[in-house]
Design a protein that fits this description.
CATH topology: Amino acid/polyamine transporter I
CATH superfamily: Amino acid/polyamine transporter I
CATH architecture: Up-down Bundle
Shape: globular
Length: about 350
């Protein structure tokens, strides 16, 4: 996995698939019922602030990744600490996503099948793309995202007969404080994870616009997630959405157009896998690059071979059930603040000071 350059469009597509990776499966209700779409748009506004900060770091240090920037600004010792923390975040996030996807597969299609074989198959797919490099992931994103959106559009069209617009009323039933609190959860568990793309920023060409990459990626993702949520809430209603682990899949199950299309939800099942594999692959790319940087190793294949079983172990042992996994978001929103906010702010401020000192 040597350094490879990818286009602006490929990077945007990767961000969108990453953001779809778990949010499109899990949904974004957060106990807000029909008001969740408002919290999602508010999270987009807050996320845009993070996006501008992430993009500014890339702009100040073009064709460098977060790991390199950390060492340039803070030196080897503090830099290595930051590298270690961000590497751990990528490892832990990949373990959570792989467990969420395996729970999804088990619940909706193969309840009698052990989870470990499903996890291994997902890792084989993600590991192969990771080993092939970011250029391969970029090409795969160019294929996967249009297919994802086309399938989503197809599902939306087929579900029109089941839609009840009254399900999204009344609007603003919840207080501003409640909606604001939920938007913070959505921000940290969805948009904030794109901080990992700073570690892949050395694949962005110097003349490309990082602001465009981040803001376009956020906007496309947020609009699509709002559409997915509104479709789910209008088809299922608030009580069913709140009780379902995977509401958008449940909504697709209600579509029945004759015998031939009576299992239309299987199409959306494969859609979720496309985005999930993309998210796991990005986490693996970040983790492998971080471990290589920490130990000054270029043996990317060996690192990946050792890393995958370790992530599988974490994914298997950390949560005892899907309910425990989904409830972890209440803790997760605080746990990930150092990775998504504190470390990037340190890097941004340090970068501004260092670049400002050079220009004097």
């Amino acid at each position: 996995m040597q350094r490879e350059m990818i286009s602006t469009r490929q990077f945007i597509y990767m961000i969108v698939l990453f953001l779809f990776g778990s949010s499109a499966v899990q949904g974004v209700s957060w106990g807000l019922g029909q008001d969740a779409w408002i919290a999602l748009l508010l999270a987009l506004a807050l996320g845009s602030i993070l996006a501008l900060m992430y993009a500014r770091i890339i702009k100040l240090f073009p064709e460098m990744n977060l790991y390199d920037v950390a060492e340039v600004i803070f030196g080897k010792i503090i830099g290595k600490i930051i590298i270690g923390l961000m590497t751990w975040y990528a490892i832990h996030l990949s373990a959570i996503v792989i467990r969420l996807l395996s729970e999804f597969v088990k619940i909706v299609t193969m309840p009698e099948t052990p989870q470990l074989p499903m996890m291994i198959l997902l890792f084989v797919a993600a590991g192969y793309i990771t080993f092939s490099g970011i250029a391969t992931l970029g090409k795969w994103a160019l294929f996967a995202l249009p297919l994802y959106l086309l399938i989503l559009l197809y599902i939306l069209i087929l579900s029109t007969a089941e839609i009840k617009f009254s399900n999204i009323l009344p609007i603003m039933e919840h207080s501003v404080i409640t909606i604001g609190s939920a938007s913070i959860k959505i921000l940290t568990t969805t948009f904030g994870g794109t901080v990992l793309f700073l570690t892949l920023a050395d694949s962005i060409k110097k003349n490309d616009n990082p602001y465009k990459i981040y803001l376009y990626g956020f906007f496309i993702s947020a609009v699509t997630l709002v559409v997915i949520f509104l479709q789910s809430i209008m088809v299922l209603g608030v009580p069913m959405v709140e009780k379902s682990y995977f509401p958008s899949y449940t909504a697709a199950r209600l579509i029945n157009i004759g015998d031939f299309l009576s299992r239309i939800e299987m199409i959306i099942f494969y859609n979720f896998l496309l985005a999930g594999i993309a998210k796991i692959t990005i986490c693996l790319l970040v983790a492998v690059k971080g471990i290589g940087k920490l130990f000054n190793s270029t043996k990317q294949g060996l690192i990946l071979f050792i890393l995958c079983p370790f992530i599988l172990l974490i994914s298997t042992l950390e949560f005892s059930s899907v309910m425990e996994l989904l409830n972890f978001t209440d803790v997760f929103q605080y746990y990930i603040l150092p990775f998504q906010v504190i470390i990037p702010i340190m890097l941004w401020v340090g970068a501004e000071i260092k670049i400002g000192a050079k220009s004097r």
